[in-house]
Amino acid sequence: MPNHLSIPFKKTYSCPIPTATRDYIRNHTEDHPDAYVRDINQWKSLREIGSGGVLHADRIKPALNYHAQLVFILAKLPSDIYLEFSYAHAFASPSSFPVTLRSIAFERASVLFNIAALYSQLAASEDRSSQDGLKRASAYYQNAAGVLAFLSTSALPQLCPLVDSENKPLDLTEDFVRSLERLMLAQAQECVWQRAVTDHYKNSLIAKLAAKVSSLYNTSLLSIRLAAADSRNALPSNWIPHLETKQYHFSAASQYRKSIDELEASRYGGEIRRLMIAEADAKKGFNIAKRAGVAEAVLNDVKSLLDVVQKNLARAERDNDLIYHQDVPAPSGIPLIQEVSMVQSIIPPGLQDPKSIIGNDSIIFGEMLGWGAREAINIYSVNKGNLLKEKIIEQAQNLNDEAEKILLSLNLPSSLEALERPVGLPPSLVRKAEEIRLEQGPTKIDVYLDDVQRLSRHVLAILDEAMDILDNEASEDEAARRETPMNRPPSYEANQELVVKQQRYHTILTQAAESDELVRRKWEEWEDQITELTRDEDELEALIPSSTVSMTGKAVSTSQTQIHARTLRGLLETLDDIRRARDDLVLRAQRRAEGDDIRPKVLTAAAKLEHEKEISPAMFEEVSDNELAKYDKFIQGLTEGRKKQEEILASIKSTNDAFIQSRKQDPAVKDREIALQFLDLAYSHYKEIIRNLDEGLKFYNDMAGILTNFKEACKIWSSARSQETRLLHRNMASLSIRDNASDELHEVPASTPSSLGTGVRKQTAGIPTLSSADWEAEELAPPPTKQKDTPAKHR
Prior knowledge:
The chain has helices at residues 17-28, 37-50, 60-76, 104-124, 131-159, 174-198, 203-226, 229-233, 239-264, 268-292, 296-324, 349-352, 354-358, 371-409, 414-420, 427-439, 441-483, 491-494, 496-532, 537-543, 556-594, 599-607, 621-628, 632-662, 667-745, 753-764; strands spanning 85-87, 99-101. 71% of the residues lie in helices and 1% in strands. The protein is built from 26 helices and 2 strands. It has 3 domains: 17-358, alix/aip1 like domains (Serine Threonine Protein Phosphatase 5, Tetratricopeptide repeat); 371-410 and 550-665, Up-down Bundle (Four Helix Bundle (Hemerythrin (Met), subunit A)), CATH 1.20.120; 439-525 and 667-791, alix/aip1 like domains (Butyryl-CoA Dehydrogenase, subunit A, domain 3, Up-down Bundle). It has a two-stranded antiparallel ribbon with strand order 1-2. It is mostly helical.
């Protein structure tokens, strides 16, 4: 039996690369899947020969080539393209479940693991009885260590943020991989030590080499002890005892070789002390090996060393007692043996420079715009839309609303028009009435109200259906628990995050319904007045009292009223000019946004980053910021318009106060003013109601999409739980059959409930956790409140 350990392959399973990749390209890029038929087929073919599982030196290059292509694929596509990769734990039992993740980063990490496993198995298969075999074995072990080091520093950091602790592959954790790397280095150093022994190097050098072997086995042992308990428990039962035995073996071998050096230098006391230490370590190693059932070769090696050490110790003590009479120093009194390392983690060149291993072969998806660049374009579009909406359109609307609110509070322009036009309709009111007539305002509002109510019921029904799915799953879970013991959380615990999300959605919908009711009450309050604005001009004029007050009266007060009225009219016209300029600025900003395409600039920047293996959206932030800066002039224009508007409104307030003081208190003028003001207010409420209903329709349409996704997430989660229930039931039935068969044959059962629990946990890990992004839906804030009076097996 071999006295070295090799790393087994992670067994993988087929995956639907063509289907998932075509769907992703079709749904998430501007390209057509047919443009990448060759690339997709190449990916599928490379995986078949490059994902590991075959022990042959010829498989090294295809595996390195596949890994290189995965690096470039990850530069073009995100890790999650809805393509599931399944791998069993490297040390998995035949009955355990594989880990399945939607992650190309997981595929890459697993491929690297299998490359390291291939190197380690090639090393273990070498004939170490020859010098050439030892050289090749040492080189293979160092390559295996290099691949594991590269896996730890390059691939695992990409994988870990994407996988929660429940679904994390136990053999792809930092401490676990680090332990395997140190083991490979220890075995490479052992090959060097063996060559030194065979070539009869000096004992002092052999001692130093052996000390380093022991140290490396010890660091491997420490790393695996730091790993999670699940990772340690997944190892074969004799794995850790093997490391312990080897550590003590080579510590003893180091002291034994150094004792020969002490003997040759006539330091007989030092010889005896080192032999005593060697005997103690060799005994520890032998006892562990014998008790834990490590490989017979390892047990024989340490037993052979123990016999030699004991024989030499008996001889040295006898000679010292009879002849030399030297004092035996204390253990702390002898110098430590300096370690000498002759190995290192050698990373294959094809890993550090992926392009070098691909050579003249085409890079998969080489013509596709990279994922980072694509995301940068998407992020820019979102940021541009937010900037346009929040800092330009909404700001402009807020300024318009602010001016309208102040004018309404001052009864403008109604009070001015009542005086300027004692009879007939003011032009502004004619325009407003015509707008409502053309839009069929009351009918439009009724239709909108019905649509909002219908959509409100629809989204609430979707939410209820989602909860029905969870309720049905909970009922199935309770029924299954009565039949089969289950090592998993009950439904009321497992679905807690989904229930919390449902409660949040329900609260949002309740708030939205309250806002809808406010809008409906506002319509009921103003329906008659808004309907009056749909009358013909003659009918509308008849509703408004006339006034005979003349602007040419001789009274001083009337003369003053004329002056203030003209000033006020000029200020109102200036305010209209500011509003028109603001509307024009918003329109120009919208046109700029419609024709704004950042893609050429991103492509130019991406071409300069071709040497980068990973291109992230953050690399294009400077390009994005420069492009968004084009909208600064519009924002600055709004700021300047705000200052002008504030100045004009302040002048309007003071002039209006003087205008009111100078007016004659003619009841006819006041009646006409009140009537005009009331119709102006009706128009303002009409616009506010339409705006609120538009917001409500958009809110419910967006919410319908969000809740549909939420319902689908509940369905997927429930389906996964149901599938898990069936697997658990089947496992338990199989366990029962094996137990019955074992009882009949009077043998130890093949599996126990505790071992079944381990397998169950592995399957549970295949279900996305509730904190996973799989269950996330875009959050939508409730609409603003409307104020009533304010506008597997392993190889």
